[in-house]
Amino acid sequence: TPHIDALAKDGILFERAYSTAGVSAPSRCALITGMYASSIGGNNMRTNQKGLEGIPPHEAVPSIDIKCYSEYLREKGYYCTNNNKTDYQFAPPYSAWDECSGSASWEKRTEGRPFFSIFNIMTSHESQIEYRKNSPISYSNHQAIVPPYYPDDPIIRCDIVRNYSNITVMDREAGEIIEKLKKQGLYDDALIIFYSDHGGPLARQKREIVESGTHVPLIIKLPKKQKSGTRIKELVSFIDIPPTILSLAGINPPKYMQGQIFLGKKKAKARQYVFAARDRMDNEYDMVRMVRDDQFIYIRNYYPERPYYQDISFRIGALASMKRILELKEANLLDSAQMIWFSKSKAMEQLYLVGEDPHTMFDVANDARYKKDLLRMRTIHKKWMKDIEDKGLRKDGSIKPEKELFLEMWPKGKQPKVEEPEIINRKGKILIKTRTKGTSVVYKIKKANGNKQDWRLYTGEQLTFEKGDILDIRVEKIGYVPFEMQRAIE
User: From CA 118, how far away is CA 121, in angstroms rounded?
Assistant: First the structure.
């Protein structure tokens, strides 16, 4: 990864950064809102697909008024783009981005305008292990580092080195974006953040909320290469990224955000703990919560009667190594430690000493030497779930079924709707007043002469029109059906 290595030399490498989930959609829900997905109804994978128990495709509806953090940047004049994946557990509001498409880039902004651009490189995604299986490979099987939760097998080694090769291609693609910034004279002044949206893409990595599924790369290059070459060992959570970005841009993060600022003048005290959550994965139910500190990972299994392993059809289709592991299991060729993943049930609590056991293979929850640590982590876990009002539990502490959560967000199975706004026309000057609390407004104008605007974020100003202009308005709120209208100016 020469381009990413070079970025790290110019920036800060955070050695212990963690996602809030082991899979993309809940993780991205947290990344775009600054809220734990399990606190806003977005932790089941995925909400936009038909679920079990007759649950239709739906959007998560937070119980408090929140916005995508990019909207706060737009309010301050930033040109904001996303290229291209969203996967937020709710439809991306128009208010979040000036452009959200496969061609979105800072390059489309007006000259000199500050910008914020996200690029999602899919080359190292789980699906690409299969889709790119016939692409050129950069490594040989003997170079694979096989973690102890896998048997050492040629097919498994093949998937590992395919992942290595995909990462090398992804590195080249990231380098192309960085090179554009350099050629345009923007690199030195740019703040660049590199991360993945969860841990590894292979079996017993993606979807898990132990180290292999939540430990992520994080590099931040500051303008003028400030603190270049620094390595930081503090714990950092994805939930901290939105408030930190806003703070570095000179914007006070909204109080509802659940993370803390970890860089810059307003940096908070270093974290003692990071947290992650797992609920339904595709067609398989579970509920697991994780706490990690400097030494330990604590896991609380709310369905201990269910196995660790879940029969995820997407994973089996994407990974020849997953098929092979299952074949070796049936042939009784997995060792006792590898077979733990396939146990028919699991302990209610697990504790791992990560420094000595980085692959979280050996549960020490029943080891008397760590009793105090187990009690401490249990207490922290309970406090965190209470603090964030985790939607996986009812108020009495019992498990909340997904259908019950769905009906809380969509009463009687109906998506809530944004109300029609009030449009005040004062001799060609228009004000827009919303009636639904917590909404955002975007608008565009088609001029009488035929010229068109892109969607713009409305920030309460008076809009000036000429007779014959056509005004399009869209009033939005995360999880709600937006209100859209078009009006000719008379």
Answer: 10
CA separation for the pair 150, 135 (Å, rounded): 24
Q: Are 68 and 417 contacting, i.e. CB atoms less than 8 angstroms apart?
A: no
**pTM > 0.90: yes or no:** yes
Query: How many whole angstroms separate alpha carbon 418 and alpha carbon 67?
Result: 15
Question: Cα angle vertex 277, ends 275, 282, to 5°?
Answer: 155
DSSP letter, residue 428: T
Tokens of 165: 């090769």
Alpha helices in 198-335 (DSSP H): 211-214, 241-248, 313-318, 320-330
Check if the beta carbon of residue 288 is closer than 8 Å to that of residue 307. no
- According to the model, what pLDDT value does residue 299 have? 98
Do 3 and 174 meet the contact criterion of CB atoms below 8 Å apart?
yes
| Distance in angstroms between the alpha carbons of the first and the last residue of the chain | 59
* Residues 184-195 pLDDT 10s: 999 999 999 999
Give the model confidence (pLDDT) of 209-230 as tens digits: 999 999 999 999 999 999 999 9
* Residue 238, SS3 per DSSP: helix
Task: Report how far residue 223's alpha carbon sits from residue 206's, in angstroms, rounded to the nearest whole number.
Answer: 33
Determine the Cα–Cα distance for residues 421 and 412; give it in Å rounded to an integer: 25
pLDDT in tens, 110-155: 999 999 999 999 999 999 999 999 999 999 999 999 999 999 999 9
Residue 405 pLDDT greater than 80, yes or no? yes
